[in-house]
Amino acid sequence: MTGSIASITGAPHARVLGVGAYRPERIVPNADVVEAIDSSDEWIQQRSGIKSRRWAGPEESVQMMSVAASRLALERAGLTGADIDCVVVATVSHLLQTPAVATAIAHELGTKAAAFDISAACSGFCHGISLASDFVRAGSARHVLVIGVERMTDILDLSDRGTAFIFGDGAGAAVVGPSDTPGIGPVVWGSDGEQFDLIRQREDWRDVVGTADSPGSGVMPHLVMEGNPVFRWASFAMAKIGTQALDKAGITLDDIDVFVPHQANMRIIDAMARSMKLPAHVRIARDVAEQGNTSAASVPLALERMMTEGDARSGDTALLIAFGAGLSYAAQVITVP
User: Fold this and answer.
1) From its phi and psi, is residue 7 left (phi > 0), alpha (psi between -120 and 50) or beta?
2) pLDDT of residue 80
3) Are 256 and 231 contacting, i.e. CB atoms less than 8 angstroms apart?
4) Active site annotation includes 293
5) List 30, 122, 143, 222, catalytic entry
């Protein structure tokens, strides 16, 4: 006789319970990067809106920053590491192919939870929030820790005029858990692989490492980006994705209080807001001015700053949207914890 597979039931809904952040101690103003890229503070601010960024020091590893952000998120959620059933880390700058840094983070936090990394570039955190919401509602986990973390300085060519001034380092974390009412809306996500090469790793690892018979360059692979096509794509295509996320959540522009887009570039943020016709009351995250673009850490860092400074209050409705290499994207509506 064939047996029946048992099923489990999760929570009726999921929500974000707490958010934490870690920002490296070193603040790097535009004046410190302009010489290497033959630029100026004025040019950088006109192109990106960035005034300074945070760069990690030797002790501020991907794991260290993640644990610091996670501990703050757990404290704000009223939980401990032992309460976490799953750890999802979004990153492109953890330089070990394996094992996943999520496992080391889980251990340091005091849990033997399922733990894995995902690579969706700048949209990774929003991907992780969607996965976490699904896990909680399906019963696969009760509490999920989602981390977006980057040490972008490890994969930057600091003489590259197109990227050196844009990126920064840091970590943001969110705890997702059960809720009696909807706190995380349906995700709108996808990719535009036709434009796969607009943001990419410049060198193949095989070319860098080489072989015994044919040594490689010995140069670390670096990130490169074609800024103008990315700007055009993100400014208008992502506005449509944001509108779709609102539709799927069953709300309108008038219902949102906070807009937290990926902190890629101030001009892109402004263009998205105009394209979506955001009402004047909506408060917009602009963390990029002091933090730079931190890829997968961008959205949680920006949200945490808004919460800390009082621009995002508990119970507010927030639209999150992120996009990056691939070109991948994800957006959802959440209730601010």
Assistant:
1) beta
2) 97
3) no
4) yes
5) 122
Enumerate residues 6+ apart whose C-beta is below 8 A from 134: 140
- Cα of 305 vs its chain's centroid, Å: 14
Strand pairing of 317-324 and 328-335? antiparallel
Active-site entry in 94, 143, 222, 262: 262
265 is catalytic: no
What is the tens place of the pLDDT at every residue in 27-68?
Answer: 999 999 999 998 999 999 998 999 999 999 999 999 999 999
pLDDT at residue 211 in the model: 63
* DSSP strands (E only) in 181-326: 188-191, 199-201, 223-225, 258-261, 283-284, 317-324
28-37: list long-range contacts, CB under 8 Å, 24+ apart.
28/52, 28/53, 28/54, 28/55, 28/168, 30/165, 33/158, 33/164, 33/165, 34/165, 36/158, 36/159, 36/164, 37/158, 37/159, 37/160, 37/161, 37/164, 37/165
> pLDDT of 175-216, one tens digit each?
999 999 999 999 999 998 888 888 877 777 777 776 666 666
Supply the angle between the helices 227-249 and 266-276 in degrees, to the nearest 10. Answer: 40
CA atoms within 13 A on the CB side of 298: 34
- What residue ranges in 91-248 does DSSP mark as E strands? 114-118, 144-151, 169-179, 188-191, 199-201, 223-225
At 184, give phi and psi (nearest 5°): -135, 120
pLDDT for 156 beyond 80? yes
Is 122 one of the annotated active-site residues of the chain? yes
User: pTM for the complete prediction?
Assistant: 0.94
Q: Tell me the angle at which helices 41-48 and 266-276 cross, rounded to the nearest 10 degrees.
A: 30
Q: What percent of the chain has pLDDT over 90?
A: 77
Token output for 191: 């990719």
**What CA–CA distance (Å, rounded) separates 282 from 278?**
7
